[in-house]
Design a protein that fits this description.
By secondary structure, this protein is an alpha/beta fold. It is about 30% helix and about 25% strand. Helix 11 runs parallel beside helix 12 and helix 12 packs across helix 13.
Length: about 500
């Protein structure tokens, strides 16, 4: 693609342009200097740990013919460029990358009805529910999310909730090629802040809930900033669907022009909260059941009965969000809702066999809000004991550790404190922080730093009627220790322990 075509709609300044017989042709785009190729465009992205401007020489040595920058000085020194490369300056390289990527792939999102899901928790479950409902109705639907990316004919492992702008556009292009009519994607606040979804028009945007999370170095500076960026999604959608029972729902839709729909588990008048009653889906007569050794949930909406294979009230909210979405797309809710009877979401309240008379669930709950909701839900089923195993990630806010320790201490009958993804921190130091929160309660706990040993302890010491929850890692198939990702999957460890019992 001609360089001038890529930058036709991007505000930019040409800093350097080599003399060529004909206009420069770009044959690839990358933000990773190690993946630069002959005649490629290298986009310098400044991250929390590394700055792409420091890797210009490496990219040029591998054949990059054009460099996109957002500054001329890095580390106190003027940047230097080989004479044979073009250099283009923009205000924000992340923002420019979003625009360039759309042009490169021919604006594939315009050929899809895109549904975005944002919120502190529930994004993955809601996104999977929507996709499964649409697929059950004969509609081919792609998915971009934390658990994995379904691109129509291909499934790709996920590294981030919301990938970079170039990757998103490449995925949309594959969905279009595979014949998808719809695409549902999880939209993180970081993804919005870093311009990854710029230029994407969403047919529907969904707000699940809001809680304190992702505050700290490399994330958001404050809770206000975190909330603000989540609300920005509703400025680029036709229809907005919100959880009316969440205190921040009105903020999300404040001064937004989208058509507003809502869902609730409270029997209040929707008009009192700024929503027309005809636009509100209400869950009633919610009941929590244990049938055949499985936890289930039943609720009614519009006088129709819905059964959930997933336990808990928070999954009722997730189901309402998905049902309201397919309804706004013009489909029948009751028919779409049939998939809920058998739907299992990997790493989200995922049942795993832990032996006779013991229920074991794996869940991604990795902050206090999610953990409290999870444990409160499981107590509704009146287990003999509620056993909670969890750790906390390294290089993240210590406040999260204190809060999760306190939540588990208050709600679980036994807490097993272990390791999660310690990253660059010592696992024991993270455990000591969790114990500070535990100390505010009279909850019983044991500490076992090795997560595999901790899981084995939970299973070996399980008692009939127990519910054991392994929280924090969910679908993740690795542990990150000192910059290295080692294979680790909670489900596989449980299966191994049970096999050797």
């Amino acid at each position: 693609m001609k360089l001038s075509v890529l930058f036709k709609r991007i505000q930019h300044a040409v800093i350097q342009m080599p003399e060529l017989e004909e206009e420069m042709e770009i044959r690839g785009i990358t933000c990773n200097s190690q993946k630069a190729e002959e005649d490629s465009l290298f986009v310098c992205i400044q991250g929390s740990r590394a700055d792409g401007h420091d890797y210009i020489e490496e990219a040029c040595n591998l054949g990059a013919s054009c460099i996109l920058i957002e500054k001329l000085v890095s580390g106190g020194r003027m940047l230097k460029f080989p004479e044979n490369v073009a250099v283009v300056l923009v205000k924000d390289t992340r923002e420019a990358l979003a625009g360039i990527s759309r042009i490169w792939f021919g604006s594939p999102a315009d050929k899809l009805k895109v549904i975005g899901v944002t919120g502190t928790k529930g994004k993955s479950t809601v996104a999977v529910m929507i996709r499964e409902m649409l697929e059950s109705l004969g509609q081919k639907c792609g998915l971009i999310g934390t658990i994995g990316h379904h691109l129509g004919n291909e499934v790709v492992t996920s590294q981030n909730t919301t990938p970079d702008a170039f990757t998103i556009q490449s995925y949309f292009a594959k969905m279009v090629e595979a014949g998808c009519n719809y695409a549902v994607m999880e939209v993180s606040s970081q993804g919005i802040k870093q311009h990854r979804i710029d230029g994407i028009w969403f047919e529907i945007a969904v707000f699940t809930n809001f809680g304190e999370d992702h505050i700290g170095p490399g994330e958001h500076a404050s809770l206000g900033e975190y909330r603000y960026y989540k609300s920005c999604l509703f400025e680029q959608c036709r229809i907005g669907i919100g959880n009316l029972d969440d205190a921040q729902c009105s903020y999300m839709f404040q001064r937004k022009c989208c058509t507003k729909y809502g869902f609730t588990c409270r029997e209040e008048e929707g008009q009192e909260r700024g929503f027309r009653n005809s636009h509100v889906l209400t869950a009633e007569k919610i009941s929590f059941l244990m049938e055949g050794g499985e936890l289930k949930t039943v609720f009614y909406a519009d006088d129709r009965k819905y059964e959930l294979a997933l336990p808990g009230k928070f999954n009722v909210y997730n189901a309402l969000a998905a049902l309201q979405t397919v309804s706004c797309l013009g489909f029948e809710r009751e028919e779409a809702g049939d998939v809920l009877k058998h739907l299992v979401v990997r790493g989200r309240m995922e049942r795993v066999d832990a032996g006779e008379n013991i229920l074991c669930y794996i869940d991604y709950a990795h902050n206090a809000m999610a953990l409290e909701s999870l444990l409160t839900t499981l107590k509704e089923y009146h287990p003999h004991r509620l056993v909670c195993l969890f750790g906390c990630g390294g290089n993240r806010s210590k406040l999260r550790r204190y809060e999760m320790g306190e939540v588990s201490g208050k709600l679980a009958d036994l807490t097993i404190i272990t390791s999660d993804n310690p990253r660059d921190e010592e696992p024991q130091a993270i455990i000591d922080d969790i114990k500070i929160g535990m100390a505010k309660t009279d909850g019983k706990y044991v500490e076992i730093p090795d997560r595999k040993e901790a899981i084995a302890y939970a299973i070996h010491h399980g008692e009939p009627g127990d519910i054991i929850v392994l929280a924090g890692k969910g679908h993740e198939d690795y542990q990150e220790i000192n910059g290295v990702r080692y294979p680790f999957l909670d489900r596989a460890v449980v299966e191994e322990v049970v096999k050797n019992l």
